[in-house]
Amino acid sequence: MPLLLLFVFVVFAELAVFVAVGRAIGVAATLALTAAAMLAGVMLVRLLGVDALRRAEASLARGESPVGAVFDAAAVALAGVLLIVPGFLSDGLALMLLIRPLRNFIGAVLWRRLQASPNVRVWRTQQGDTVVEGEYVEIKTDRRLPPRRPPDRPAGTGGG
Question: Which helix (H) or strand (E) holds 48?
């Protein structure tokens, strides 16, 4: 429920900013800015996202941990998606994700939180490799859902 409320709040905040910008610079300019941001997002995902994944592959080939490169790729991809989504607040967040020092800071904070988690253990081997050990649950997906059965009716309700 809190996630739904956050989503509703973000949608209304985006609408309010959209209307305020539209009043300030006009509808045509607002729509042009939105279209330009969407186009930039598509280009960003194509160019920088693929480049970040290549850096992750290269670090794997060198025998290094690709965690930083993978986080960079994910942050750039998220920034691209946020640019594609219409709205100026999401565009601002996307631009913040594109600033490398800020992205590095966010990655470091998330890494510390991951290490502090009780379900994850991180250590270094004698060779200097980082090992992340955690618990997981395998979820098997089956495209066929079990047949639905009607809910049980309490006795004496005349259910037929």
Answer: none
